Amino acid sequence: MNLNKLAMELDETVRLSGEMVAELNDGLAMLLADMTPIEAAKNPAIKTMIMAMQMQDRIEQRSRGLIAAAKTIIQQAENGGACQGHTGSGEKPEKSRPACDPWSTQVLEELRPTNAPGKGSAPPDIELF
Fold first, then answer.
1. What is the pLDDT of residues 2-43, one digit of tens each?
2. Phi-psi category of 104—alpha, beta or left, where left has phi over 0 and alpha has psi -120 to 50?
3. Alpha carbon distances (Å) from 119 to 1, 11, 17, 88, 123
4. Second label for 82, Cα 20 to 30 Å away, from 2, 11, 46, 75?
């Protein structure tokens, strides 16, 4: 299950990266269009490119979360699949030990489209600088 989820989330990250590049291309196309005066195209193009650059920041955050989840999965595999987030003896778990669920602390949904499987709510509006 954990590796399947990791693969699914990596696929989504690749999709988001492609979408970011497409947004940048759209912004450039607006600026380079022969039929549109440059002044009329400038503002929509800038907004489109800013949104794409903000996506890059969120993709980076998502990638860092995926790295952390992958490291947890690796640690669990090295420990024979044992959950080390809880000792069962009432002791607090060590901070260096992986949690039982590598996905419990991850926020990976904010850029996923609302029609994507498993998505429960709409993504937040992206604020422009």
1. 788 888 888 989 999 999 999 999 998 888 887 778 888 888
2. alpha
3. 18, 15, 19, 33, 9
4. 11
User: How far apart are the C-alpha atoms of 30 and 3, rounded to whole Å?
Assistant: 41
Provide the token pair at 31: 């600026």
Cβ(13)–Cβ(112) below 8 Å: no
Q: What's the rounded Cα separation, in Å, for the pair 95 and 73?
A: 16
Q: pLDDT digits over 35-72, tens only?
A: 778 888 888 899 999 988 888 888 888 888 888 888 88
Integer Cα distance of 41 and 62 in angstroms: 32
Does pTM surpass 0.70? no
